Fold this protein.
Amino acid sequence: MANVLIAGCGDIGCQLGSLLVQQNHTIYGIRRNVEDIPDSISPIQADLALKLPEIPSDIDYVFYIASAGKYKDSAYYQAYVLGVQHTLEAMQNKNIKRLFFISSSSVFGQSDGEKVDETSPTSDANFSTKRLLEGEALINESKIPSTVIRFGGIYGPGRTHLIDLVQSGKAHCMEDVWSNRIHSADCAGMLAHLMNYDIKNPEKVESLYVGVDNQPTSSCEVYDWLAEQLCVPDVEHIEPKESSRQMRSNKRLSNARIKSTGYEFIYPSYQDGYLALLDTLD
């Protein structure tokens, strides 16, 4: 079994750690507020933006799952550049089998409904994508074997913003704009799967995976479906101007690469995931 370090042990990190503990791996979690870490995960109190304390010498796998907290350049720099640098420094002289870096599908700049996969070009048109790509580059340029996972829009327990908008009547959607999602349980499931896949087939693990469910869907379809489930009035549809369409994420992401490794989604579509989530909110 493996010794695993989760740098940035927040919501996804705690779900991942708990899942890996069930599989008999040993988990350490770095977090500023360690009281929020489950008892099954060994806590390391630290701020990724600062020099990290000494970590266990026998770590096999590392997951970097930071979040910026605020949508501002300094926060993104601390989370995805400075924190990565400090984590890599802490990994020096350790025999790390693979480092997994959690990024975002927002680094894909396509905005005209294109089909997108791991081979598609990226864009650093704004500070957030620039910092994410800087972090990816630091990981890829290190001597540690590494894999980047670019997740789509994450939803799940504690991530009910879209439900709240629709239920409050404040939601509106733009026509003909594609969206891509993944349930937080599948984020954790996919990461655990990739680590176990690496244990068995290290030569087969790719350097990049897109993390989304099976069903790219127009935003309006999702909003309308949620309104129906919640028994609230229909959501306002807006005909977008070209400038506003380009500002929105509008692409169809493919998950073919992760599925080719044998990963089976817990929630393969937004209907599956949101139905389960709505059941918990009743």
About this structure: Residues 3-155+182-212+254-267 form a domain with the Rossmann fold fold (CATH 3.40.50.720). The chain has one domain: 3-155+182-212+254-267. Residues 18 and 40 are 7 Å apart (CA to CA).
